[in-house]
């Protein structure tokens, strides 16, 4: 039985070395075998799935997966579904600012099959997304959303930090999902997987950046 050390969000994570390291060679071989009609190696498989994330669950039908993430994999393989909740654990930043952005769905939810009734989840929990796109893209979603997201929002993550964004609020809810989106759009990688791979600085340096920005604002010369 295959026992990956990562959840299905890996299929939106644009670093093939991480696929191999966290899925394991047995899983990688099985992926190449199952997608041999469109790819010849794991690099081609990764590119194909990253550009067409909806095919991932279809290609894994019948696969038996165990290990620490077996519940997530079983849901994904058997039901073509993935939990829409946020996964990254952002360091605390004291922040009560409000953002008028309703995006309470992780980018990982793009992996859920469109044949399921996922539209209502997107519409109810991610209404702001449909200000920027008329429909969810099934092909190359990363590039589509990079073009669609407002520049001011993209810049907010870069300048204030993803952790800062995560601790802002939409109504009474924190914007942890939004922070995941902004990180994914900027890097092409999923933040909680980067954290597992030890890229803590890349994911969480934003807490220091936020503190530095606050300090600089105290010492602006008149």
Task: Write structural notes for this entry.
This protein has 14 helices and two strands. With 222 residues, the protein is mainly alpha-helical. It folds into two domains: 72 residues, no CATH class; 111 residues, no CATH class. A two-stranded antiparallel ribbon has the order 1-2. Strand 1 and strand 2 form a beta hairpin. The longest helix is centred in the C-terminal third of the chain and has 13 residues. 34% of the residues are buried. The C terminus is likely disordered.
The gist of it:
With 222 residues, this protein is mainly alpha-helical. Helix content is 51%, strand content 2%.
Helix content: 40-55%
Uncertain spans, ≥5 residues at pLDDT below 50?
Answer: 210-222
Oligomeric organization of the protein chains: single chain
Q: How confident overall, as mean pLDDT?
A: 90
User: Which H/E pattern describes the elements?
Assistant: HHHHHHHHHHEEHHHH
Rg of Cα set = 18 Å
Shape: globular
| Strand order of the biggest β-sheet | 1-2
Measured distance between first and last alpha carbons: 66 Å
Total beta strands: 2
